[in-house]
Design goal:
CATH architecture: 3-Layer(aba) Sandwich
Shape: globular
Number of strands: 10
Structural class: alpha/beta
Strand content: 15-25%
CATH topology: Rossmann fold
Radius of gyration: 18 Å
Largest sheet: 8 strands, mixed
Number of domains: 1
Strand order of the largest sheet: 1-2-4-3-5-6-9-10
Order of helices and strands: EEEHEHEHEHEHEHEHEHH
Number of helices: 9
CATH superfamily: Alpha/Beta hydrolase fold, catalytic domain
Length: about 300
């Protein structure tokens, strides 16, 4: 199987040229998974997801959100959370142009989990609709940032919104695999910066998501590490309980850390992710595959 990897740019809010990359198999694509990274991350850190899903005939799209990776913008800064939301909406338009009539799933890791949960609550039923959402270690509850840093961010958001601090998350290992930890430390595109405005926008959005969890209307998978010290598991558990939509699943891996896709048990996580995606493909896709296999 050949893999076509490409990258490019698309216009985000305010005309900002945002970076994205895609991995597409040279066989019929069954579905697309759009991946949204966390704070300080970028689209190049999800190779295990790409390698596992390509043979299953999924195309993968990754984006570097504004202020991250190869995209422009002050590191860790936004004017308002709506910028993330509308940037993601522009990416979806691009995906549907390049992969018309292919079902699209949305995965968000860490802060990216908050971005995709907010997006889905607002736009899941827009045409064409989201096929499903995966929150991978979402930062939807208590996070591993010190109360002092959070207090400073809240105080300065209005008067000095671009004030930048180190989040302190660098000292918390994201994986039990020492090679992964070393690779993260040497990653030239990763940063550990957050701004005062991002802090207040993040927590306001988190609170809004909790308040509207009962409105959830799309298949939901939450994958959570039980030993995650960056995004504490209680947050995923609380949000899951608030969602009344019946097609929901929370899988917790008791000893796993924050980088679930690159932890010691990543193969188990990838298998669970792939199986869930297969189970949530549209019925017409499954029926067509069945007909072709019987010919």
């Amino acid at each position: 199987m050949k893999i076509y990897h490409s990258d490019g740019k698309f216009k985000g809010v305010g005309g900002l040229d945002l970076y994205y990359q895609s991995w597409i198999p040279d066989i019929k694509v069954r579905g697309v998974l759009a991946v949204v990274h966390g704070l300080g991350g970028h689209s190049g850190r999800y190779s295990n997801i790409v390698e596992h899903l390509l043979p299953k005939q999924y195309a993968i799209y990754g984006v570097d959100m504004r202020g991250h990776g190869r995209s422009p913008g002050q590191r860790g800064y936004i004017n308002a959370w709506a910028e993330y939301r509308e940037d993601l909406r522009s990416l979806f338009k691009l995906i549907h142009q390049q992969q018309p009539e292919v079902p699209v799933f949305l995965l968000g890791h860490s802060m990216g989990g908050v971005i995709v949960l907010d997006y889905a609550l607002r736009y899941a039923k827009d045409a064409p609709p989201l096929q499903g959402v995966i929150a991978l270690a979402p930062s939807i509850g208590k996070v591993g940032v010190s109360p002092l840093r959070l207090f400073i961010g809240k105080m300065l958001s209005r008067v000095w919104p671009r004030f930048t601090m180190n989040t302190g998350l660098k000292s918390i290992p994201g994986s039990r695999d020492e090679k992964v930890v070393a690779a993260i430390a040497q990653d030239e595109f990763k940063h550990t910066l957050g701004t005062a405005r991002l802090s207040t926008e993040f927590f306001a959005t988190r609170d809004w998501i909790y308040a509207h969890a009962g409105d959830w209307q799309v298949p939901l998978l939450i994958l959570q590490g039980g030993a995650d010290q960056v995004a504490k598991p209680a947050g995923s558990q609380a949000f899951y309980q608030k969602v009344s939509y019946p097609d929901k699943l929370l899988i917790e891996y008791p000893e796993a850390y924050h980088e679930l896709h690159a932890d010691l048990n990543y193969q188990e996580v990838m298998t669970n992710l792939g199986n869930w995606l297969d189970q949530h493909l549209p019925s017409e896709v499954v029926q067509l595959e069945s007909m072709m296999s019987n010919e």
